[in-house]
Amino acid sequence: MKNHLIIIILLAGPLLASSQLPRRIQVACIGASITYGSRLKDPGNESYPAQLGAKLGEGYEVHNYGVSGCTLLRKGDKPYWNTPQYQAALALHPDIVTIDLGGNDSKLINRIHLDEYKKDCIDMLRSFAVLPSHPRIILLLPVVSFVTDTTGIWDPVIVNKIIPLLKEVAYEEKREVFNVHSLLVDKPALMPDKIHPELEGTTIIAKSLYEIIAADRDTMYNIFNKISYTKTYNSFHGYACADFVFNGRNCKVVQPKLTAKDHPWVWRARFWGHEPQTDIALLERGFHIVYCDVAELLGNKECIDIWNNFYAMVREAGLSKKAVLEGMSRGAVYVFNWAAGNRNKVACVYVDNPLLNIKVWTEEMLKLPAGKNEMFEAFKKDFNLTTPDQVQRYNGGPMQSIKKIVKGHYPILVLCADEDEAVPPAENTNLFEKKIKALNGDITVIHKPGFKHHPHSLPDPTPIVDFIIKAINEK
């Protein structure tokens, strides 16, 4: 009898132990051939869902429900709706769902039904939303296509038709959206057949999706409830953007779908919405994007005072103490002028083809006929410079604030087009970098050989995003 009891305990032990293990978070990856892992040598380990599962670890169980050739459209040539994988995904009652359907919908045979794409997308999203598990749902913008056959998976249709519809759905349904398209848009070598990413490409997708899913989030925070000013709302690439007037200035705050822990934020200095790929990628990761329009004050005292008050307002609304400052072109003047006097409020600075040397710029402007350059006329008014002699004696701007900037001990990223005709690197970025490094400042410069002043940013903003995430994590 005693021996029988021992055997029963030994047999029951593993069952008791397994029943006490915490439930693994179930992730359902919906999609077509790229989700499945077509062209990969080992889809079971190399597809982006498989790599995502490896990154997430034992607390998660990732299921690959990809079916090659499928459309989101019900009237498409191969609707995902009719697959057993769709039914299996519903039956799973997942905690997280990623939906990557749209590439095949861009084929000529399916384009005639694109007016129904939005409705079908909402219906699929809601079919998961009503499950008892109430899953977190992430819409993936389709991977870029380099195919030149206009009857096939055609990128202009993806960019101009399908992606805007997915952003509309994300905004209206208040669901997350992940811009996969930008990750590979400048990497055709990773897609030899022009449609399917091979291992390095799926690894890139898995990395970013992991960062989005695994990041700590504050699901209770809503900045819009904490800003008392009258607001109007619109969509910023699928995210809710509040417009309001603060102290006579037009302002914007874009809210992520799920706020990151500690409420990080990016402060865009100028040129709202221009080359927004970095802002979008950081929204995916839970950052807020804010803007206070001080054009065209060019970082003068009035500008700094307005920004100081705006900073105090968003801080009171719950954003983190240290901002990520983002300045394109002359936006760098605003950024560094404010940072020079607020160094304890800066997490990092990202500037792009930046104007840094006001002294050299004004010398060039003085050579032009009076009134020729609107920015120069605004500059003279902003700093009360009424004569050429006063302009020549002006000694402000980032290049003259190097010591104050370095004392902030925040990392600086400069994106520099080496053939910039508007803001010559030799007199701006290169000289600025040299002076910062001479004082042991923290500066990184990413060069863009052969590029002029435009376009700003990078098609794939990952290097910029990684720099900012690292700065936030180390602050």
In a nutshell, what does this entry contain?
The protein is of the alpha/beta class and 475 residues long.
Secondary structure elements and pairings:
Blueprint (H helix, E strand, L loop, with lengths): L1 H18 L5 E7 L1 H4 L6 H4 L1 H9 L3 E7 L17 H9 L3 E5 L7 H4 L5 H13 L6 E6 L13 H19 L2 E4 L1 H4 L14 H16 L2 E2 L13 E5 L2 E8 L2 E7 L3 E2 L4 E4 L8 H8 L3 E5 L8 H16 L6 E6 L2 H11 L4 E7 L5 H8 L8 H9 L5 H6 L8 H6 L4 E6 L11 H10 L4 E6 L13 H13 L1
Parallel strand pairs: 1-2, 1-3, 3-4, 4-5, 11-12, 11-13, 13-14, 14-15, 15-16
Antiparallel strand pairs: 6-10, 7-8, 8-9, 9-12
Structure description:
The protein is of the alpha/beta class. It has two domains: 24-214, 3-Layer(aba) Sandwich (Rossmann fold), CATH 3.40.50; 223-356 and 397-474, Rossmann fold. The chain has 19 helices and 16 strands. It has helices at residues 2-19, 33-36, 43-46, 48-56, 84-92, 108-111, 117-129, 155-173, 181-184, 199-214, 277-284, 301-316, 331-341, 358-365, 374-382, 388-393, 402-407, 429-438, 462-474, and strands at residues 25-31, 60-66, 96-100, 136-141, 176-179, 217-218, 232-236, 239-246, 249-255, 259-260, 265-268, 288-292, 323-328, 346-352, 412-417, 443-448. A nine-stranded mixed β-sheet has the order 7-8-9-12-11-13-14-15-16, with helices on both faces. A five-stranded parallel β-sheet has the order 2-1-3-4-5, with helices on both faces. A two-stranded antiparallel sheet has the order 6-10. Helix 4 (48-56) packs across helix 10 (199-214) and helix 7 packs across helix 8.
